[in-house]
Structure formats: C-alpha cells, structure tokens
Write a structure and sequence with these properties.
Blueprint lengths: L2 E6 H10 L13 E4 L3 E3 L3 E7 L6 E7 L5 E8 L4 E7 L7 E8 L5 E9 L6 E12 L5 E11 L5 E10 L5 E12 L4 E9 L8 E11 L7 E10 L5 E9 L6 E10 L5 E6 L11 E7 L12 E9 L1
Parallel strand pairs: 3-9
Antiparallel strand pairs: 1-13, 2-4, 4-7, 5-6, 5-8, 8-9, 10-11, 11-14, 12-13, 12-15, 16-17, 17-20, 18-19, 18-21
C-alpha cells in the first residue's frame, strides 16, 4: 500500500522550535542548545535549535561523529535570538556518541550531544536513486525523484522509505518518502514522486534510507503492469501510458502506478505517479496515465522507463 511522507524544511523547523523535549547536555558558556532527537539512526535527520543569543549575527554548526568524521554544516543567521539547523546524519556515520558544536563568535560556544544508532539490516535495499529539479512555470521549481528498491530476502517485507534532499554540506532542504510499502521476495520496485518547492534553492544531493524490514503475513496486492509506452505531450513532458491488472482474488482500493525515468547512461533522473483509482476487481484491467508535467525531466532526456503498480486490499 502506498502512503506518502512529505515534510518541507519550514515545517520541520517549526516542529523543532515548538519542541521542548530532549534537551542536550551543554557547556557553561554560550547559547542554549536543544537537540530534538537524543537518538537517531544512520541516515536519519537530526534537528538542533540554539536560543538565548543576545544579538544578531551568524552561528556555525560542526558535528563530530564517534569515528572522527566531521560534518561542517555552515553558518546560519540569528533570527529572534535563535538559530536552527536540520541536517542528514550520514548513512555511514560512526555509531555512538556524536557532538554538535555551535559557535556564535564572541557570544560563545556550546556543544550538545546525541547518539547515533546503527541502521537495522533489512532485506530491502536501495539500488538506484536520482532526481531532476526544474522551473514549474509558477515562479517556483519542482523536484521529480525516483528510487529503485530490491528485496534480496526470501520474505515479503513491509518497509518505510525516507527520501531526503540536501545542499552540498548536508543541510536538509526537503523530505519526502513512502511508508508501509510492501515488497515481494526477490522483487524490484520503482517508487517516485514530485514536490513543488517555491522559493527553494537548488538541491545538490538525494539520499534514501529503508527502515522497518519486518516480514508480513498479509498478501501483497497482485498487480501486473503491461502495455507500457512513453510519449511526449505538447510541452515536451514525458507521458507514460499502460495497464494494471488485478491478478489477485480480492478487490483492490487506491490503485495506481509509478514510473522511474532513466537517462542514456541508465541513471535515474526522476519519476512521477498516476492518480489513484479505486475499486479494481479481481481479473479486471484498468488503464493508467502518468504525466511528468513541467517539473519532471523532459521526454527528450528520458531514454528508459520502469513502472510499478501499487494498491491495497
């Protein structure tokens, strides 16, 4: 079943500023530092807020992980006597205690601590990911992304996939993803989406992490994708048409399809999904259309496309 996650940077910072939980241990001088999460997994997002800064200016953040790696997250302006960061903990960050050092010039330095936990092993792995960010024709941009997953285990797995877009230093600009995604044993799944990002700077990197990994006794929706064809609309956007067939024995709801686009080097350059359909009966075939729109990679850049169907009983 497809259930999306979508959290913009501004929303995440709002949660951070409202949070009073998990105060970090601090030194005796400088601003007060609060970390929202005292424990994070490798590849997850951490949020930090520094308050009590008496004047305007800028503060910088550097994180040192247990194996000695330093992540410099640059400087941010002080607004209303506080400054915040949201960043992506590297997937290979050292397990154990990490130190987040906030320096605000003459105002002082404070260090908060949090613990990085090892990302649990799961049979479902991310094998490809990529995105395209283009003007959306509405004074903003759109990010079109695609992720390829493979279940290397012999069990049906139900997982959550978090997709994070960062700048060059690791600051998180946009979050998206899927939760409660079922992947059949040995199957390859193609997930995708588009987000409109008015006023956002260019994204530099995309990372995807899979968590959950528990097997499920529930049956996976038996959807077959056939007759896939790609074309271009009048504006040059990629359009994918095809058919979904319910091969199972029960009626499916919220049925749809997602396409991942590849360039001539077989690299993922984006993706998009169809609108959801409801009430697909056993043995019934239904046509779908996926239009990448102005924000997706143009058809002229797409050399290949792969499609997965999704649905729930």
């Amino acid at each position: 079943m497809r259930t999306r996650l979508s959290v913009l940077f501004a929303i995440a910072v709002g949660v951070l500023l409202a949070s009073t939980a998990a105060a970090a241990r601090v030194q005796s001088q400088g601003p007060k530092v609060t970390l929202v999460s005292r424990h994070v997994l490798q590849g997850e997002v951490e949020l930090l807020n520094a308050v009590g800064i008496p004047r305007s200016g800028r503060c910088s953040l550097t994180v040192r992980y247990s194996h000695g790696f330093r992540q410099s997250l640059g400087s941010e302006p002080v607004l209303g006597h506080q400054v915040s960061w949201i960043w992506l903990v590297p997937a290979r960050a050292g397990v154990g205690s990490a130190k987040a050092r906030v320096a605000c010039g003459r105002v002082g330095v404070r260090t908060g601590t949090f613990v990085v936990r090892r990302l649990p092993r799961t049979g479902v792995a991310v094998v490809e990911r990529g995105f395209t960010q283009l003007p959306d024709g509405r004074n903003g941009t759109a990010v079109s992304w695609g992720v390829v997953l493979t279940n290397r285990s012999q069990k049906e797995m139900r997982v959550r996939v978090d997709v994070n877009f960062t700048d060059t230093t690791g600051n998180v600009l946009l979050q998206d993803g899927w939760r409660n995604l079922r992947v059949a044993p040995g199957a390859t799944e193609y997930i995708a989406d588009q987000e409109y990002t008015a006023g956002f700077p260019p994204m530099a990197k995309v990372a995807a992490v899979v968590t959950g990994g528990r097997s499920t006794s529930d049956s996976i929706a038996a959807l077959t994708v056939t007759d896939v064809q790609m074309s271009a609309d009048s504006e040059g956007s990629a359009v994918v048409n095809g058919s979904l067939t319910n091969e199972g024995a029960t009626k499916l709801s919220q049925v749809g399809a997602c396409a991942v686009f590849f360039d001539s080097a077989d690299k993922v350059i984006g993706g998009a999904c169809s609108s959801s359909m409801s009430g697909l009966l056993p043995g019934v075939q239904e046509a779908f259309t996926i239009d990448s729109g102005l924000g997706g990679p143009p058809a002229s850049k797409v050399a290949g496309v792969k499609v997965s169907g999704y649905g729930s009983p």
